Description:
alpha+beta, Ribosomal Protein S5, domain 2, six-stranded mixed sheet, 2 helices, 6 strands, 29% helix
Amino acid sequence: MxxxxxxxxxxxxxxxxxxxxxxxxxxxxxxxxxxxxxxxxRYHVGAVALAIPRPSLADPNQVSASASVLCVxxxxxxxxxxxxxxxxxxxxxxxxxxxxGIHIDDAKPEDLSDLLENCxxxxxxxxxxxxxxxxxxxxxxxx
Length: 143
């Protein structure tokens, strides 16, 4: 049996305020990354995406990713989870699972726009964070 992980790198960040806040939490799971993106007024699991890095089809010297998604019936976080997982997996060259759940009752288009911008903000922060620690530690240190 492998030795259990005794070092877990946890990252937390949020963007926005009030009903438009979006929060991200992430932790290293061996060589991989588990990310939770929640926001709005009711946090929940709306969709889960798993992205696996691979060479880009357009340029094999670049990293891209492929993703699979499970979405709770009636929820609309599937594209958010998929896009976040693809972006993070390609940027960090790691397998990434994203769990997403964002809700505002009677959301208007401007609510959705604000939430989307705040999602982009937390994803950028997460990628920047893990790219910066890559120079200090290796993901392999966690396996």
